[in-house]
Amino acid sequence: MSINPLLVLCSLLLLTACSEPLPQDKLDYAGHWQGQGMELTIEADGKVSYRRREGITTTTINAPLKHFKGDDFIVGIGPFDTTFVVSQPPQMTAEGWRMTVDGVELYK
After folding, report:
1. What domains sit in the chain, N to C, each tagged with a CATH number?
2. Which of 19, 24, 33, 59 sees the fewest Cβ atoms within 10 Å?
3. Which of 103, 92, 84, 101 is nearest to 33 (CA)?
4. How wide is the angle at C-alpha 95 spanned by C-alphas 34 and 43, nearest 5°?
5. Is the pTM of this model over 0.70?
6. Which residues does 27 contact at the CB level (< 8 Å), separation at least 6?
């Protein structure tokens, strides 16, 4: 079976084009965030990388941002998406930037 390089390129372009850039009022979300068992990178152009370790299970997501719903944000491709629940949006503290996502306090 041979893979058509043009098909691969078109697929990659389609996936990249699906990213929703961060709205101006959500630019504080951008950056590399870390917390207990979780790493989350949100780029200003809408690319999201997520890794969470719970016991022996590791969940990894690399997908474009679809949109924000309040403070929460949804990432995914087509009908497949994941909602990240933000109970504390990004804020600057004496220790630096922090936010709480899916119950985990994250710092950048």
Report:
1. 5-107 (2.40.128)
2. 24
3. 101
4. 40
5. yes
6. 44
